[in-house]
Amino acid sequence: MQRxxxxxxxxxxxxxxxxxxAIVLISCRGQGETAVFPVPNSGILQMDEPAFIGTANITGSxxxxxxxLPLWLRSFLxxxxxxxxxxxxxxxxxxxxxVNEGExxxxxxxxxxxFRTTQDFSILASARIERRFYLTTSLFPDDExxxxxxxxxxxxxxxxxxxxxxxxxxxxxxxHESENGSEHSYNYMFFIxxxxxxxxxxxxxxxxxxxTSAEVTVNASQTTAINRLRQTFFEGF
Length: 237
What we know:
This protein is an alpha+beta fold. The protein has one domain (14-232). The protein is built from eight helices and seven strands, in the order αββββαβααααββαα. It has helices at 14-20, 71-85, 105-113, 121-136, 141-144, 147-158, 198-215, 220-232; strands spanning 25-27, 34-36, 45-46, 58-61, 93-102, 165-177, 184-197. Mean pLDDT is 79; it is low at 1-45.
């Protein structure tokens, strides 16, 4: 089965993010308690591209019948993030879809249950911000933007973003066939839909860029590149 690449970009620090979240430690609501859950294969990842999962390979879902999948999930499976953001329900919003997959249904359920916008969303946001740098640079971002790039990615990865909403969670059961079709296996894919008003996200990132610019030292060409990026950052974001 053809699978989409989770990130279609050159990101030197993406591997580090995945390693960091390879062990998920989630605080329980009870004070002083920490719950440690087995981590399925992929960790917390932002999916931008279609998942390319044929309907025939979806053998079960949270909604029962495949035809009853939520519109946002059906749109994502067929067309990726852009398809979801084009839905009327998400006008003027940025959509983030995080995914986790594996065979341990209970672990995945706990992951989805304890996903917190105040803690986990920053991973999704920083990955999208980093991708935006790579889409517009002819060099590696740390060459073209100097200290500004590393500093703002660190800020983005630890920030608490305002107005983020965990809108929905849904799972599907997927069948995977061997290359010769003689064997097959099953796993679960959990999707978490989070959204944030575009104006909130844009104001927050612009303020973060302003603070970062004042804190780092860059040369003249890097300053020009940073100013140009700040003016066009949200085109294609």
